[in-house]
């Protein structure tokens, strides 16, 4: 009797909790049903865990929730945004920004110069900040606010990319001062000055809701609401678009091709500066001994076939990390072409000999290395598998390990990487200069350091072009990344969406599509 | 006798065993000039979106799928039979604890169990996936074995063996198991197919074997993509092979059950 009673009570509790949970979700559903969805854009985008311009610098949402002193125009050139205007004192290397007076934070507080000072201090002085872009602000010596609407930023020396980097979103001092920016709950409930206001983050459902900022200081967006669904899996994104669960998404070229002939959808093909390649961890035991043999692997890769196979021809063969940058594209850096005979010769020169299993060996070590690839990024998995298969035929064993999350401590020899320098070529500084903030692969080459420093601090555009051309040449001799392809950015949306502007060259993961979101419209 | 099923199964198994003879392409190679080819003369079952030859993959993939089935079933037998025998022979209290434990574990949906284990220990190898499937699938078998053992444990031949100080493993192998075989054959054979199903499910979900290890399950994991790309042959062929094999195995298993039942009613 006692037993049955206790079981019964347990059952009751279970039922009760189930019915309560049911109520909760029903209410939430009603809530959404009531909202008028006709002027809402449902966007299927990458997974997010934080929304903070300091921590996430190549993602879509920080750009529309926050705004910076400057912003990029259609051609990727910096123009004033939160600043009405700026002066540059060449002798003193000092920028003076005259801020707008009519800017309010999304919580209603006034935006002032203190916020700017706070943000740049955080970026340049907080040693604990886990950001990959701090190296871009090395030249800043002081940030001061002589009055609430003026900011003076002094530099050590001339920095050609500084105006670009002033596009970084400004954080609210009144919400973050004295807190740990890396971990504060603000990152999941951002308050900015940008075109869209953060409303709600439904982490269980993977949905971030934004509303247009009616008090925005510039053109208020046409589209009232954005529902950002966090899906990383490319197949899921395509399926959501097909079933009407999403209105717009970045798809890999194979899936995009499926929507091209369909009248209910539109496709926008952006040019991107986004490359794919196997980035080697120069600190791994294998590459410490064999870094001299990365470049030669390019000879064994039929990159054109990879582009045709994986990308449906929507891309170009990559030879330099700044190839799609106006200051890049030095054809002299294109020193490798698919040539297996040359590959065999070069390998012999480097001292590699084929073992009985057909894999090269040197000093008793097999040419075997492991790169990690995230399993949901199908296009990267495909590229990695094709690279591995081509290298195998040439006698090199590149093992592709699929992971759900990148593990930087598991001792992989590299990962299938992507990166873009869509704006100033100096964007690669933080990635390639020894010990710079974004140099996760521990690349180090004094000649590269020298060239990138010189490029950053040179004013004349032609001189810079020459310097970056030189960098491309040096890098191609001693690469840390086995570059494969530059992708095109294929966006697919329902036919009712208008206003996307393909003038802009997009960044990594085809980010930046929302650069003119205020002009978009949606009709259902 | 389900001769038809046995013949089909034999054909498929032989095809997988002699995969190198049947395959007309390298199953791991990418034929980049022949992407998404429908079934035809050169690529008999067509190619997928990266130009892999499905026909050759099918035979090589079957090896892995059948291996996982057999390995998984062996592990189920290796755990389930001794466990059931111990429980059947043991005293009431030990029997109670052992059986409640097995029932407790058995009441958890096995897919959940497998997902947790493969997330924690799975390294994507054939052996590890078989072990994970095996150690989560033996509960039912243990219960049946225990029931059978209970019926015969007081028979004279067992009492005699024990009186002669025969060790438990000896009694189990020489006296218990031979008398159980017909009763558990159905469960054993169908556990081969349930292990294969589990492998396909896991690989389809991306938690089992990686796409680089060809199995029918990992081939099916390309199905999502294939549906979006309208390449039906990528879905149909591995599915057809898997289903046919499973049907044959189940059919054979049912035959054993019928046999077992008939014997029992003759007593």
From TrEMBL, chain B:
It is found in: Cell membrane. The keyword NADP does not apply. The keyword Transport applies. The chain crosses the membrane at residues 64-89, 101-121, 127-145, 179-197, 204-223, 235-254. InterPro entries: BP-dependent_transpt_permease, MetI-like, MetI-like_sf, OppC_N. Keywords: Cell membrane, Membrane, Transmembrane, Transmembrane helix, Transport. One of its GO terms (cellular component) is plasma membrane. Residues 62-253 form the ABC transmembrane type-1 domain. One of its GO terms (biological process) is transmembrane transport. PROSITE patterns: ABC_TM1 (PS50928). Belongs to the binding-protein-dependent transport system permease family. This is Probable D,D-dipeptide transport system permease protein ddpC.
